[in-house]
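F.,

This is the one I mentioned.
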């Protein structure tokens, strides 16, 4: 896992996870990397307010998972209902980053709270 992906993982943990005991948000220093096995990443989150330790298992996907998996044969094709023009459009846009997913999640939860 490169440094940029690791920092993004830490940011996402800070956004999505709160201490189950007191509800405090985790600081950068509260999160420690324990190790990685295949596509699983093990993190320890220690609350700075109440000191409750939490073990988080994070499943990696995208570029991190591709590095760990053997390459697929060139004849491999995923089934899709996309038309060729639609497929080209989405391919040009590139992969969705975890930051985009986190921002979308925040937008949805804010919308849900206003109802």
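My design for it:
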């Amino acid at each position: 896992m490169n440094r940029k992906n690791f920092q993004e993982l830490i940011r996402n943990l800070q956004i999505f996870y709160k201490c189950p005991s007191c509800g405090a948000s985790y600081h950068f220093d509260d999160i420690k990397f324990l190790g990685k096995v295949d596509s699983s990443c093990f993190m320890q989150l220690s609350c700075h307010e109440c000191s409750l330790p939490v073990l988080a298992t994070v499943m990696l996907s995208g570029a991190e998972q591709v590095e760990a998996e053997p390459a697929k044969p060139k004849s491999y094709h995923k089934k899709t209902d996309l038309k060729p023009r639609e497929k080209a459009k989405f391919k040009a846009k590139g992969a969705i980053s975890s930051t985009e997913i986190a921002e979308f999640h925040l937008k949805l939860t804010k919308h849900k709270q206003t109802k």
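The two ends are 40 Å apart (CA to CA).

Talk soon.
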